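Hey all, sorry for the wall of text incoming. These are the two entities for the joint prediction.
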Amino acid sequence: MKALSIENLKKTYANGVTALKGVSLDVEQGDFFALLGPNGAGKSTLIGIVSSLVNATSGDAKVFGVSIHNNRAEAMSMIGLVPQEVNFNQFERPIDIVVNQAGYYGIARKVAHQRAEKYLKELKLWDKRNDLSRNLSGGMKRRLMIARAMMNEPRLLILDEPTAGVDIEIRRSMWKFISGINERGTTVILTTHYLEEAEQLCRNIAIIDHGEIVQNTTVKELISQLDVETFVLDLRAAAVELPEVEGFAFRRRDEMTLEVDVPRDRSVNPVFAALQHAGIEVLSLRNKTNRLEELFMRLVDKEAAA
Amino acid sequence: MKSVSWVGLQTIVIKELTRILRIWGQTLVPPAITMSLYFIIFGELVGRRIGQMGGLDYMDFIVPGLVMMAVITNSYANIVSSFFGAKFGKHIEEILISPLPSYIILLGYVTGAVSRGLMVGAVVLVVSMLFSDLQIANIGVTVLVVLLTAIVFSLAGFINAIFARKFDDISIIPTFVLTPLTYLGGVFYSIDLLPEFWRNVSLLNPILYMVNAFRYGMLGVTDVPLATSLTMIVVFALILGGICLWLLEKGVGLRS
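and here's what came out:
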C-alpha cells in the first residue's frame, strides 16, 4: 500500500511564482524516504500541501488512499509533521505543547499525558517538561517538535530538515530515534541538507528542483550512477612528484595532501602501487565529499544548465 | 470524528482559559481599574451635577453601558490578540494540520473570548456595586444580551485577526472603530437627548442596540425596543459567524 501518493500536484502562489509544476510521487508504506532539493526547489511547498498548510492550485495527494482534498480530516489524522521552523508557543511549557497537540487529534487528556511522558522521555526532554519552551536550547526545541509530531502516533511522519543547526551528537541521537520509529512501522519522509543523513537513513529518494522531480529511485541505485569517486590522501611528507597511472588523475591539493579520481569500475590497488613506487607514504584516506552530495550537485547543476 | 471535535474543542478552550488566567494582570485587573475611574469621575463627580438621565440616577444609568463596554472591548481584544499571536508565532499551524473542522476552531476561540468578556463583565459589575445599589430587572435578558454581544465582538475580532499582518493591524479597529462606536452607543447618555438627525444617525450604530438591550435587562428602561435590539444582535452574530467560517474554510490569511 502507498503511504503517500501525489498526483500531478501544481502550485502557483498569488505573486505568480510557480513552486510546483505537476509533481507526481509515490511513497510506499513503511519506507524511509528522502526528499532532497536545493533551497527554493519546492520541497516545503510540497510538504505544506500534503499537511494542508498550503492550498494546491491543482492535483491531489492521498495519504494511505485517503484524499487530502476530499477527506482532509481523516488524511490529517494519519500525518505527523515536524516543520523546518520552530512553530510552538515559546511561552508555553513543553508538557502543555505536546498534550494540547494530542487534544487537537481527539486524544483524551489522560492518554495524552501518558504519551507525553513516553515521547518526552525518549527524546530526553522529560526533565525540561515544566520549563518555559523559549529557554530550551536549539536542539531541545527540535526534539520537542518531534515529540509533538508523535503525539497522534502518525502512520506517516514528515520531517522537514529536523536536524538543521543541531550538533552531531544530538543529530545522531535523533537519527536513532527516527530510525526506531520507522522500524516500528511508521513511514518516514525526510527532507534534509545533510546528504550523509539521507544516505545513512533512507532507502528511497526523490530529488526535486525548480518544482519538478528530477530523480526518483533507491539510494543504492542512485549511488551506483556515480562513475568517479574522488579520494583525499594525507601524506607523511611532501610529495616531490605526482605519480602517473593510466586512468587515474592525481592532483596536488597542498604540499602534504593529494587528490585522486578513481573510476567506479576500477580497483584502488594501482593507486597504492604507484604511490609506493614513488616513495609516497599515505597517512590516511577519505572521500572528498559525500557520494550522494556529488550526485546531488551533478543533478541539480544539470537542471540549472538546461 | 465527533470525539475528535469534542476533545479538540475542550483543548482549545482550556488553552485559552489558561492563557487568560496566566496573564490575569493584563486581562482582568486593568478593566477593573479603568471602570472604577469611570464610576468615580463620571458617576460620582460629574454625575452629581447631571442629576437624572432617562428617569434614573446618572450613576445607575451608566452602569449597564460601562459593563457592556468592558465586555465588548475584552471579548474583542482577547480573540484578536490570541489568534493573531498564534498566527504571528506560527503555532496556529498546530491546529491547522490537525483533523479539527473549521467550526470547532472558531467555536474554541470564540468560547475563550466570550469567557474573558464575561469574566471582565462580572468584575466590573462587582466594582459597580461599590458605587451603586441597582437591582437587575430581568436576569434572563441581561445574561442573553451580554452573551450575544460577547459572541458578536469575538467574531468581529476573529475577522480582524485573520486579516491582520502585523501587530499594528490589531489595534486599528479597536482605536478607530470600536472605541468611537462604544462612546457614541449610548453608554453615557440617552439618545433622546440628541437632535432628531443625530438620533437617527445613532440608530445605525450596532453598539447602541446592545447597550440598550442590556440596560433594559438591568434597569428595565431602553431607548430602543428590546425585540429590535435582540434581532439586530442575532443578525450581526449570524453574518459575522458565516464570514468567519468562510474565511477559515478558504484559509484566507492562514494557508498560502
